[in-house]
Amino acid sequence: MGLFLILYWQVPSTKEIKGCLVTSMHQVDLCPRAKNFTPLKNISSYLQKAIISTEDGKFYTHKGFDFEGIELCIEKIKEKRRFVCGGSTITQQLARNMFLSKKKNVVRKGVEALITVKLEKTLTKKEILEKYLNVVQFGKNIYGVKQAAQYYFKKSPAELDVVESAFLAMVLPSPEIYSQSYHRKGLTQFARRRITTIVENMYRFKMIPEESYYTALARIDSFLAEGTIIPPQALPIENEFDHLTEEELEEMIINETQDN
Q1: How far apart are alpha carbons 189 and 187 in whole angstroms?
Q2: What is the mean pLDDT of residues 135-164?
Q3: Are 138 and 147 contacting, i.e. CB atoms less than 8 angstroms apart?
Q4: What is the dotted CATH code of the domain comprising 2-257?
Q5: Could you report the per-residue pLDDT of 164-212, keeping only the tens digit for each?
Q6: Which of 149, 250, 165, 157 lies closest to 215, judged by CA?
Q7: 153 vs 215: CA distance, rounded Å
Q8: Do 201 and 55 form a contact (C-beta atoms < 8 A)?
């Protein structure tokens, strides 16, 4: 009982959740009046769909936790006898980004769970997604979709197309590492495989029409070099992730997301 009270005492109030604040994780000014804040209606629907499909496919139906995913994770751990899965919902990630530090321990996970419940009770799904897209990290010192769209593509969040949205979704598990393709102006094999999978899944689940799907596939090898004097690479660039099988790649991405 004492521990629960200690944890509950750290849960923010409804006013704190709904109001303006500077986030604990990365000190992002999360307020509609902030210069980098972008309302959800001004964020590309492609980006919203790409991120939901990669980060939290059941976002609109769960209450903050993906219990089916947790059960599958437990089965995988039993089967492989090692930790091979995890992942957090968008609401859990928002709870961490808004109110918690980078310190990882059992107490933090307990507080995170309580905040997640409070967020789901206090905010609509659209409000949760809007706040998430305005605080999440997309690269070194790049927080929120407005900074990301401008930094990578010199665009507003509303102008992002399918392949650009897939790129931003791809970097989320480990943005400082996975964004290396941007600086090279050519995709690593790892990045190309991941972006292609994201685009294919968006089409498979009817998030994008057929024309947008084929247009995105055609641009994957060249979109990073558009508007620069650096030509697209004839072959994808290799890196240390390229030897991974699809199953190993999926496990690595899940493990990257679980504590981000």
Answers
A1: 6
A2: 97
A3: yes
A4: 1.10.3810.10
A5: 999 999 999 999 999 988 988 889 889 999 999 999 999 999 999 999 9
A6: 165
A7: 17
A8: no
- Average pLDDT score over the chain: 85
150: tokens are 């401008």
pLDDT of residue 107: 77
**Distance, first Cα to last Cα, the chain:** 29
HEC profile for 67-133?
HHHHHHHHHHHHHHCCCCCCCCCHHHHHHHHHHCCCCCCHHHHHHHHHHHHHHHHHCCHHHHHHHHH
- Count of alpha carbons within 13 angstroms of residue 63, beta-carbon side: 5
- Stated length of the chain: 260
Q: Which helix (H) or strand (E) holds 175?
A: helix 175-178
The beta-strand segments (E) located in the chain are: 21-22, 29-30, 137-139, 142-143
- Residue type present at position 101: S
pTM of the model: 0.85
pLDDT digits (tens, 9 = 90+) for 53-105: 999 999 999 999 987 765 665 566 556 655 445 568 999 999 999 999 877 77
Q: Where are the domains of the chain?
A: 2-257
Reply yes or no on whether the pLDDT at 229 is more than 50.
Answer: no
The H or E element that residue 210 is part of is: helix 210-219
- Residue identified by tokens 């010199």 is 154
The two structure tokens encoding residue 178: 């996975």
> Residue 130 corresponds to which tokens in the numbers above?
């809007």
Band (pLDDT 50/70/90 cuts) for residue 161 is very high
- Residue 224 CB neighbour total at 10 angstroms: 25
